[in-house]
Each structure stands twice: as structure tokens, then as C-alpha cells.
Write a structure and sequence with these properties.
The complex is a heterodimer of chains A (about 200) and B (about 750). Chain A has about 200 residues and is an alpha+beta fold. Helix content of chain A is about 30%, strand content about 25%. Chain A has one domain. Chain A has a six-stranded antiparallel β-sheet with strand order 6-5-4-3-7-10, with helices on one face. In chain A, strands 1-2 form a two-stranded parallel sheet. The longest helix of chain A is centred in the first third of the chain and has 17 residues. Chain B has about 750 residues and is an alpha/beta fold. In chain B, the strands form five sheets. In chain B, strands 15, 25, 26, 27, 28, 29, 30 and 31 form an eight-stranded mixed β-sheet that branches. Chain B has an eight-stranded parallel barrel with strand order 16-17-18-19-20-22-23-24, surrounded by four helices. Chain B has a six-stranded antiparallel β-sheet with strand order 13-12-9-10-11-14. Classes of the chains: A alpha+beta (about 200), B alpha/beta (about 750).
């Protein structure tokens, strides 16, 4: 058991083995139409002809959706209409958008250090939420993000909940990245860290 | 006087100078050196900082005797003192007035020239993109072209400081006046905005040798974008190598900061190079790469008494109160001027006055405006207007008079006719926007060119029918297209585009017999009051549900209308691509196939045929397989430059012999958009040929008693300009014609 896994176990964080998929109703178009709507929204906010940049993240998501508890499992046709979504839905939405732009991307998870002064609030907010996941412990939180491939062997980590690209140097203190897991069989270089292989990598 | 160091720039307000940071960094490595802080305003709070052994306040630059100051600096240096200036304009003045001195730790004039705005030649050695830039002492038509090309996302920058964001022509005109006055200079330039995060490189160098450098990523900024917190990293090898070559080639001495923007793809864009250390420079000492101390060591040969040890590669600022030193009392507060609502904390060193001193050699050149050069369209205008001016009766014809320019009319409608014939096979159709000019000559020209009629009211449909269009050749758009409600509506039109879901529902219930019904979409992310909102799943689903109810014999269309003239061509293309994605989604969610795409109007006359229409249609057809017709609705592009307005000068006001203001007999009633886009001006003196006029210093005032009735902020008129001379104002068609109104004529 590596350090990250030990922390997960010791802190009773019931985290997901893999980032879950948002589900689709079988035999209906509702979920396909919902995904199409999200991709069209992203194209409208992308301004790629004007900005000339391919890898721009969907920063509009954080202005459009409020962060908070989501009930899982969830269907696409429900998810896009929710006013409040958790990091798992932010991650799923952003990766759908990156993929629609032809950018290879992977689901990813990060274990973050947090102070109790923050986690106590989140614990309380999530306490009454039905079917949400216990992602908060006293000093650690579990968070879902996107690993965006920038070249053959390199990636950057995008946090669509905050609309920021992560910095591999931030490994300590409030919001420090303790460990990262990218759901890719490829080995990917993230700044000076090596990730991939579906393994938790302690930073 | 050895081991004595002077440092200038002690302002420590919201946009601080670097003096305190430089002093603290050097103090850290040289605790025993005598550091004298120097500034030009008693309000600079750094004068009271305990890092300085002594402080000196000189008069502000607009009040000082420059020879006395030069002698002071020269004496300090000659007596063995060192000097690190941290103010841009002061650094330039020192280079010009002191020149090279082994104890002046700042760049020489040649190096400063290589780093100066707007076209810093140092970028030749650096691996950065440079945003497209235009100095604005050119014709306004060229400036407007540049603004549209830059999607109306630009910065108007001053010669040394200041930048204002420009999003439209009115802002440009206002900021140009403001910055020209503030800096007493026309050396302003426009730079295309780049979207990205702010980063910078800071370095120390001595006589072309790079001592060291750091890379800084801003993490928190002030509302003005000034660094508040940042992360410092060593420079990547490839950047260091390029920087070393650049420093060597321009023979840089002193500190400097290269401001960069990093776009989403990681490309670095050069913004500007500051000829001094940045205000956050103490951050380099915190990171253990003490650039000011390295500079001081290189120039003095003194080894640091204390070695800087890295504490963190990140820094931040705090605001703290310190005691005011007795020998430098705070400045007194001026009694507020009428209308002044707050005290100003701005740096009061009179730096702007230095621009006059620094630029006095080039000032003569600066104030010469670009000569007015006639382009092909100008020659057509001249040829169209001259018969009117030659007409003996014209002397007696009252002005202002708006003229149709037959040559331009012929040129524009021939071009669209040819374009439509060439692109017929890909389904291209053009609709003439009646509202841009409902005059019969324009409507008939449009119809003869093969254009449909595009209307926004029943009255316009009536006008279109009167001027020869069949009802089946009419497109009906707009939020109140059935107005006036008292009029029987025309049925059997070619296309009707609904502006709301409610209107679409009414159409479906109407039993009308139009060929195409469609929807105008309000594209998310674009500002518009028009069209149907689709920015929530609920709204989009409701729209799709209603579209599904359109009878099968009626074809379906999707309409976008955002003026490329106002948002720029690239931004407009973003909107078109977005609209196509939405159209595809509508097809996927409904039983209707998109048969018609309408891309609206609002194209600038100079852009209409430069838009890559063929590529856009090809892109469209990749996904929308059932599109039969692609409509564009040019009106402005057909008519704006096909009319001119003749006006007569009724007053000339002079300062000495020079005409500073003229009054003409036209006004904003005839030219309601005179301040919204640039117009071409031509002068006709009696018996002489028509000549184009460029920008200049003579203000042109309109005839009515309205403060905003200003026809031009500056034309280059001859000194012998006289009452009775005529000015012909081009580009006076389109909305200048159709939105003109009666005012100041003694009735309605």
C-alpha cells in the first residue's frame, strides 16, 4: 500500500476507485441531447477563432454552475440542468468538452491537504445531502479533475471546479496536492511529476 | 564617498515603484552599505521606510531645474557614489543627460531604444510572439480596419505608461484624446489584446552580460493588474539562452523586466520591456536569487556581506502603517476642485512633463500626421462628387446636401451581383437590408443585382413590394416585424425568422403560407438583445419542442445576426461556428432539417468580400447536409460608402494664423453616427479640385447647439481655409442616411 492509499484508509475517505461515469438513459435521446447542449454551450464560450488557442479550459462552467453536493448516480439529462454540481460532474462536463474539441483527456483524482477550518464547513454542507459521497476527512479531501494531454507524453491537470490549471509545486499546506491519480494506462509527465497507470502518485 | 548607493522611486501606492524593493534586497546582502532613498514627491511613503539611511526629496519634474539636478547626479557619481534609478522616464533622461558612467547602474540610450515601445527590436532575439501593433498616426480608416481585425479587443497604449482597453470606436476616440493630452504626445499605439495569464522575466545585466534572471508568475494582482503575489522560478534553459543573446546584442546594463502573457496553449507573448527592476523585486531575494545585490556586486566588485538564502519561491505583500519621519512631512491636501470627489493617491512626481523633455528631438516629427493618400474608392467618390461641384447651380443649392454616388453604387451592386453568380452553386443568396437605405435607387439596384429584400416591419415589406420585389423574395426579421399592427400583414413571404418562442408559436398557429420559417438564436457568450435564448437545457428543449411542431411543408431556417463591423471578423466567425453547432443540435433534437442558414448583416464595406465565405459554407455543409440556401444580408456594406454629404464652412476660428476650429452647416442630425465610425473627409475650395483631408489639429464643429455636435476632433486643413469652402464627408450612406433626423430646422 502506498502512502496515498494509506492516507485514504486512515482517514476513512470513501473515495471512488475510478471516477464514475455520468449515466445515459437507454433507448432515449434525452441524454444525447443533453451532452450535445453542453458541447454547443462550450463552443459558444470557446472563442477559438478569436483567441487562437486550442487548449483553453471551459472556465465558463464555474460561472454557470454552483459547486455543491450532487446525488449519484446521475443521468446526463438531469445533470446538465442542475444548478449545483459537485467536482465529479465538473470533471465529467469538462472532459466531455475537451474530447469534443479533439483533445485527448483523462479522468483524474487528487487528494488534497486541507485545514479543519475548511473541511468542517464542507462536512456540514454535505451531511444532509442525499446520495452524495463522503469526500471530506479532517485534513484531507478527495477531488476530481481532468488530465489534459498537451503532447505525446505530457499532460496538464485542469480543475474545472475552480477553472484553474494545477501547479505541481503546491504539495503542502492549504489546498496542497498530496497525491494524484490519472486514469490512463499511459505514463504522462505533469510538470516535474510522472503520473498515469491508474496509480495514486504521492507528490 | 564610496559605498554609498542612491536609489530612486520610493512611491509605494497601488502602482508602486521599485525603490523600496531594490533597497531591501541590497540591504539584505550589504547590511553596512549607506543607502540613500530619493524621490520627486513628498507623498511617496517609501521616504519613511527604515531601509534607508537618508532620504532626499527633489522637486517634481515639472518644477525642477534640470541642470541643477544633472549636476547633483553627476557629482554623486563622480564622488564615488552609485545610483540605481527605478523610474522609467528618469532612466531615459539619465541615459540622455548623464550618458555612460561606471557607477550608474542603468541602460544606455541605444539599449533603451531597443526596448522601447511600440516596436521593441529586442524581440528579434527572444522566442516570444508579438501582438499585432499599429501606431495611430495613420488614417482613421486604417485604424478602424485594425480594430475590426483585432475583434475590437485592443489596448491603446501611451508612449511610456498607461493602457486603455478599446472595445469600440467611441472609446477609442475618447481615450485617444485623453492620452494625447495627458502625455502631450501623439505617439500612441494600438495593440491587439491577447488572452492569457500574466508572467514576467526579471534580470540583471552589466554591459551586455546577463548576470542572472528569474521567471515570475503572478498569482494575485491589484485591480489594475499590478503584482501583489507571485511565484518565482529559475529561468528555463532555452529562455536563459535567448535572453543572454538579447542582453548581449542590445548591450544592456542594469535591471529590467520583460512582461509576458502566456496563452492557453502555452505560447508566450511579449507585452513590454521595462528598463528597471519591477516593484516586486524583493521577491527575488526571498527566493534566494537576489538580482539587485548581484547587480551591485557586478558594478562595485564588493562581495556580499551576507549571502541571501532562499526562504520561499513565492512572495506576497501586506499593507502596513509606519511612522512619518519628521524631516519629510506629508504633503498638504489641495482644496478640492469643483466636481472633484476624492483626494488622489496618484504619484505626484510630474513624470508626464519628462516626456516633453525626453521627446523634444522627435516632437517635430511626431506632430506631423500621415499624408492623406487617396485609395481607389476615394477616386470614385471624387469623380462622383465633382460633377455636382462643377454644376453652376450648386452654388445656389442649399447645404448640407446628401449625394448619391453613382460610381460607388454601381461598383458595390456589381460586386454583389458577381459574387452571387459565382457562388450560386453553393446556394448563396443575399438579402438587401431595406432599413439601411430605403431610397428607390438603392432598392432597385439591389433587386437588379439579384438580391432579395430583407425587412423588419410591414411598412418595409410594403416599401419592398412598391420598389419591385415579389412577396416571395422577401425575408422578414426583427423583434416587431408585424408592426404596424393596424396594417394587414403580407403573407407568402420567402422567409420569416422568429425572435422569440412565443412568436414562433404564433407563426405555427397562423396558417401563413411563407416558404421558410426560422428562428433567430441568441448565441450564449455574445451580447445581444435579439433572438431566442438557448443557454439552459430547459429553454433549448422548449424551443426544440416548438420547432417540431412546424408543419412539414414549411422549410426551417436558423438565423444569426451579429454585426462583424462591431465585433470584428474573427469574433463573428466564432459566432457563426457556434450557430452551426446549435443548428446541428436542433436537427438532432427535432424532426426538422435545417434548409436555410441566414448569417445576417452588419458587414463593413471593406470586409464583405474578405470574409472566407466559401470555407464557411464548406464547413457548414460538413454537418448540415440539408442546407439549400445560405443567406447574407448586407446593407451597410452596399450603401455606407455610396453616399456623401456636402457641407459648407460657416465660421473659422483661429489662434494666430492657424485655424483651430471651424463650424460647418451640417450636424449630428444629418450624421447621427459621426462619432461611431470613421468617415473620409474631402475639401473643395472654390475653383480648385477636390482633395482628401487627413487627421490634423482643426476641430470641426456642427451647426446645432448641442455639446456633442462635433463632426471631427481634428482635420488637417490648410491655413487659408475660409468661410464658404466646402467639405465633403464620405461614408454618409447606410444608417447615416436612414437614421438621420430633423433638428434645428424650425419644425419637424
Amino acid at each position: 500500500m502506498n502512502l496515498a492509499a494509506a492516507v485514504i484508509e486512515q482517514n476513512n475517505l470513501i473515495i471512488r476507485n475510478n471516477c464514475p461515469d455520468v449515466q445515459s438513459h437507454a433507448g432515449k435521446d434525452c441524454c444525447k441531447n443533453a451532452r450535445n447542449w453542453l458541447v454547443a454551450m462550450a463552443r459558444s464560450f470557446d472563442f477559438s477563432v478569436t483567441d487562437g488557442a486550442r487548449l483553453a479550459g471551459p472556465g465558463w462552467l464555474k460561472t454557470f454552475y454552483e459547486w455543491g453536493p450532487s446525488a449519484w448516480p446521475v443521468y446526463w439529462c438531469e445533470a446538465v440542468s442542475l444548478p449545483v454540481i459537485d467536482c465529479g460532474l465538473f470533471r465529467a462536463f469538462a472532459n466531455l468538452i475537451f474530447a469534443a474539441k479533439g483533445i485527448e483527456c483523462f479522468d483524474a483524482q487528487v487528494l488534497r491537504l486541507q485545514q479543519q477550518s475548511a473541511t468542517s464547513h464542507w462536512q456540514k454542507r454535505w451531511d444532509g445531502a442525499a446520495n452524495s459521497l463522503p469526500w471530506v476527512s479532517k485534513n484531507f479531501v478527495y477531488h476530481e479533475i481532468c488530465a489534459v494531454k498537451t503532447s505525446d507524453s505530457r499532460c496538464e491537470l485542469y480543475d474545472p471546479t475552480d477553472g484553474v490549471w494545477l501547479d505541481a509545486d503546491i504539495t503542502k499546506g492549504h489546498n496542497g496536492h498530496f497525491a494524484v491519480r490519472v486514469e490512463s494506462s499511459e505514463v504522462l509527465q505533469w510538470q516535474h511529476q510522472t503520473l498515469g497507470g491508474f496509480q495514486w502518485v504521492s507528490l | 564617498m564610496t559605498n554609498k548607493l542612491l536609489i530612486s522611486g520610493l512611491y509605494s501606492g497601488p502602482s508602486p515603484s521599485a525603490g523600496i524593493g531594490v533597497a531591501r534586497a541590497i540591504r539584505e546582502s550589504y547590511p553596512n552599505i549607506k543607502i540613500i532613498g530619493m524621490d520627486y514627491w513628498a507623498g511617496s511613503s517609501g521616504l519613511h521606510h527604515d531601509v534607508f539611511d537618508e532620504t532626499i526629496v527633489h522637486p517634481s519634474w515639472d518644477l525642477m531645474d534640470l541642470d541643477t539636478h544633472k549636476t547633483f547626479i553627476q557629482t554623486v557619481l563622480d564622488e564615488g557614489g552609485y545610483y540605481i534609478p527605478t523610474l522609467d522616464l528618469e532612466t531615459i533622461w539619465l541615459a540622455k543627460n548623464i550618458g555612460y558612467h561606471p557607477r550608474l547602474l542603468s541602460p544606455a540610450t541605444s539599449a533603451l531604444r531597443a526596448a522601447s515601445k511600440p516596436y521593441a527590436s529586442v524581440t528579434e532575439f527572444l522566442p516570444f510572439g508579438v501582438p499585432e501593433t499599429l501606431t495611430i498616426n495613420c488614417h482613421e480608416t486604417e485604424i478602424h480596419d485594425f480594430c475590426r481585425r483585432s475583434a475590437w479587443r485592443l489596448w491603446l497604449k501611451g508612449p511610456y505608461h498607461d493602457a486603455s482597453f478599446i472595445g469600440n470606436w467611441q472609446t477609442f476616440s475618447a481615450q485617444r484624446s485623453h492620452l494625447s493630452m495627458k502625455w502631450s504626445s501623439d505617439k500612441l499605439f494600438l495593440q491587439a489584446h491577447k488572452k492569457g495569464v500574466e508572467e514576467s522575466i526579471c534580470f540583471s545585466a552589466k554591459e551586455g552580460q546577463l548576470l542572472d534572471a528569474v521567471y515570475m508568475r503572478k498569482r494575485v494582482t491589484t485591480p489594475d493588474g499590478k503584482t501583489w503575489s507571485g511565484k518565482i522560478e529559475p529561468l528555463e534553459t532555452y529562455l536563459r539562452e535567448h535572453l543572454a543573446v538579447a542582453v548581449k546584442n542590445i548591450n544592456w546594463s542594469g535591471g529590467a523586466e520583460i512582461e509576458l502573457l502566456k496563452d492557453s496553449d502555452g505560447k508566450l507573448w511579449f507585452m513590454e520591456m521595462n528598463p528597471r527592476f519591477p516593484a516586486w523585486i524583493f521577491g527575488t531575494a526571498i527566493a534566494g536569487i537576489n538580482l539587485p545585490a548581484m547587480l551591485f556586486e557586478a558594478f562595485t566588485g564588493l562581495k556580499p556581506e551576507v549571502t541571501s538564502s532562499p526562504r520561499s519561491n513565492q512572495f506576497t505583500r501586506v499593507v502596513t502603517e509606519i511612522p512619518v519621519l519628521e524631516h519629510t512631512p506629508l504633503p498638504l491636501v489641495s482644496e478640492p476642485l469643483h466636481g472633484q470627489i476624492s483626494m488622489s493617491g496618484k504619484y505626484g512626481a510630474g513624470m508626464a512633463s519628462l516626456v516633453d523633455i525626453i521627446d523634444k528631438d522627435s516632437r517635430e516629427v511626431e506632430h506631423k500626421f500621415a499624408a492623406a493618400v487617396s485609395e481607389a474608392d476615394d477616386l470614385i467618390l471624387i469623380s462622383d462628387v465633382e460633377p455636382y461641384l462643377r454644376d453652376e447651380i450648386s452654388e445656389a443649392r442649399p447645404t448640407p446636401e446628401r449625394l448619391v454616388l453613382p460610381g460607388m453604387l454601381q461598383k458595390n451592386f456589381s460586386a454583389i451581383k458577381e459574387f452571387l453568380i459565382e457562388n450560386k452553386s453553393i446556394g448563396f443568396v443575399a438579402g438587401y437590408s431595406i432599413k439601411t437605405n430605403p431610397d428607390e435607387v438603392f432598392c432597385k439596384s439591389a433587386r437588379n443585382a439579384g438580391m432579395l429584400g430583407e425587412c423588419i416591419s410591414m411598412l418595409e415589406v410594403k416599401r419592398a413590394v412598391e420598389t419591385g420585389w415579389n412577396k416571395s423574395e422577401i425575408i422578414l426579421n426583427g423583434p416587431a416585424k408585424w408592426w404596424p399592427m393596424s396594417m394587414e400583414s403580407f403573407d407568402g413571404l420567402y422567409a420569416v425568422f422568429a425572435d422569440s418562442v412565443e412568436e414562433l408559436k404564433r407563426l405555427i398557429q397562423s396558417n401563413r403560407s411563407d416558404q421558410v420559417w426560422g428562428v433567430r438564436l441568441k448565441i450564449p457568450g455574445f451580447k445581444s438583445r435579439f433572438g431566442i435564448e438557448i443557454d439552459t437545457p430547459a429553454k433549448f428543449n422548449e424551443l426544440c419542442q416548438v420547432i417540431s411542431e412546424i408543419p412539414s411543408h414549411i422549410k426551417f431556417g436558423v438565423h444569426l445576426h451579429l454585426a462583424s463591423n462591431l465585433i470584428g471578423n474573427s469574433h463573428w466567425q466564432d459566432a457563426v461556428e457556434s450557430m452551426l453547432v446549435w443548428a446541428l443540435n436542433i436537427e438532432a433534437a427535432t424532426s426538422k432539417k435545417v434548409s436555410v442558414i441566414d448569417m445576417g448583416g452588419g458587414y463593413h464595406p471593406r470586409d464583405l468580400f474578405t470574409i472566407p465565405w466559401t470555407e464557411i459554407v464548406a464547413f457548414m455543409r460538413q454537418s448540415l447536409e440539408h442546407v439549400e440556401r445560405v443567406i447574407i444580408e448586407p446593407g451597410r456594406a452596399m450603401t455606407q460608402d455610396a453616399m456623401a454629404l456636402v457641407t459648407t464652412i460657416v465660421d473659422v476660428r483661429r489662434t494666430g494664423d492657424l485655424p483651430v476650429e471651424i463650424v460647418v452647416d451640417t450636424c449630428i442630425a444629418e450624421l447621427p453616427l459621426i462619432g461611431v465610425y470613421p468617415h473620409r473627409f474631402f475639401l473643395q475650395k472654390p475653383g480648385q479640385t477636390l482633395v482628401k483631408i487627413g487627421n490634423g489639429r482643426t476641430k470641426v464643429l456642427g451647426r446645432i447647439c448641442m455639446e456633442d455636435d462635433i463632426v471631427s476632433n481634428g482635420l488637417d486643413l490648410p491655413d487659408d481655409i475660409a468661410i464658404g469652402d466646402r467639405i465633403i464627408i464620405g461614408d454618409a450612406g447606410a444608417y447615416e442616411r436612414s437614421m438621420s433626423y430633423e433638428f434645428g430646422r424650425g419644425g419637424y
